[in-house]
Amino acid sequence: MSSTPPDAPGRPRARRWSRKRWAALAVVLVLLVVLGAGLAATWRLQSNLDTSPLDLGDGSGTVEEGPLDVLVMGTDTREGEGNDQYGDDDDSSGSGLTDVMMLVHVAEDRSGVTVVSLPRDLVADIPQCTDPESGEVHPAEEDAMLNSAIANGGPGCTVATVNRMTGLKIDHFMLADFNAVKELSSTVGGVEVCVNEAVDDPKSGLELPAGVSSVEGEQALAFLRSRAAFGDGGDTSRIRSQQSFLASLARMIKEEGTLMDLPKLYEIADVATRNLHVDDDLGSVPTMVGLGTAVRGVDLADMVFVTVPTEPYALDPNRLQLEEDAAEDLFEALREDRSLTTPTETPTASAGPSPEASTAPPFDPASVPLSVSNASGVEGRDGDIAEVLEDEGYTPVESGAQPAELPGTQVFFGAGWSEAAAAVAEHLGVPSSQIVPTTDVAGVLVSVGQDFPEGDRLEVSSALPGELNGQTAEQYTCQQAAGDW
Question: Which is higher by pLDDT, 286 or 312?
Fold first, then answer.
């Protein structure tokens, strides 16, 4: 691992790719060529792609080796076929703003993928950018909206802005519009998503029953775009649903063997390339071949989705700014190509309690209003987990089976019980991404999901540290309805 600064000319970097969001499916195209689909198919896929320069700030290009960094963006443009129905003209201008921004980092040894979500409400310093078509020079802006950088000449200005923010050197970008989400989600046969309560959001058009549903087309787009349906109604809540969607998509591709199904790969590749705008270098099939093979063998436990640490912007509480120290720690880990996760081990009976479990909590466990419900589909799991918690000094109440089975175990907590919820989750091995605030619970509620059918601790291979918000692709999460936080 090199200590060379990220901007040093000698630092090796690679042409990168990432299997993220709707654009991630472009990996198919790689596998298609690797497995030999023929020159005619290759030419058609390459001719589908729309391209433009990578970096409008300083024009830097990529080099041949190292970790891979790809900026994946979704635009809210109302232009183009099928996009004019999503809101009024004043919702976006021209080519649109970047409604979604995800920085995808693929480790140099290709052992892991980290996807960092950048909220569209984040303020940033946008450097001077030159429009590659008109030649117009857009002056630098301080504390501007990150999602507006694309208006200063195109996606290459967003790349330049994120480079400055993170100290990284992005190798490629992918840009997609609303239509890309609809077509790709339908082409893969739908993606399973989970909500704790029924959702009916007239703003986005999202309608889902409680539990697990498969969404595609308009409903997939509504799930990814909705702000009013989940959590506190802000962009960070929407990011949680996007991360959950992508984790589910990754699991589906792995479990269904999609990467080995050539006809399906070609179908997905054709849809993806028709709906993508990429940088000039990525607009070549040979480059995509190398990028696709780079991420093909990544384990679900090593595919990480995390939100950049933020806090309310000092001059406008409706905007966000980087939480400087925590964000810099994250960016430094990416620059140094370090994994964000730590492996987890299920303690054995002979090993005794973990050091964390041995630490006395700052409250009396017996005083915590604690209940356990069963959403696993396995009879008696609420009783099993209640016994485990009784051994830790809690007095849980078993509430029986929930109406809807849920894929993920969750620990819900009401106002004033966050520390107790964290302690209960620690005892049970439940990741922080599955700890959920709500106004529906007076105390703490453990909802045992389908991922916890047996044993005393939930088995996950890796977890994010508590100071980071996010999940791995291995973890099952459900979205909490708005108004319940």
Answer: 312
Four-way CATH pick for 21-341: 3.40.630.190, 3.40.50.970, 3.40.1080.10, 3.40.50.920: 3.40.630.190
Separation CA 323–CA 308 (nearest Å): 8
Q: What is the pTM of this model?
A: 0.81
d(CA 319, CA 169): 26
Start-end of CATH 3.30.70.2390 domains in the chain: 345-459
Give 345-459's CATH code, choosing from 3.40.50.2300, 3.40.50.300, 1.10.10.10, 3.30.70.2390: 3.30.70.2390
Provide the percentage of residues in the chain whose pLDDT is more than 70: 76
Q: How far apart are CA 115 and CA 107, in angstroms?
A: 11
What pLDDT score does 44 carry?
Answer: 58
Contact between 154 and 132 (Cβ < 8 Å): yes
Phi, psi of 396 (to 5 degrees): -75, 155
368/307 Cα distance (integer angstroms) = 30
